[in-house]
Amino acid sequence: MGAGPHEGRADGGRRRQLARGARACGSGGQGGAFVLCDLEGLSAREAGEILGLSEAAVWKRASRARAKVRRALGVEVKP
Prior knowledge:
Blueprint: H1 12-24, H2 30-39, H3 44-51, H4 55-73
Helix pairs in contact: 1-2, 2-3, 2-4, 3-4
């Protein structure tokens, strides 16, 4: 039997724990979107369900958080 599409993803109690941590990160949900999508591997739809946001809002907030992380690390991104 092969691995399912959601194997290894958070569910149940872990998902609730991630939601609490995500809400505590950063301002305006940016940290939460970053943590859930980039670190935990959830889709924008899944992260949006946890954070109570639309998929588009999750993408926007995760993008802003990535920019903050790049600035904090001193990483330049050329257009």
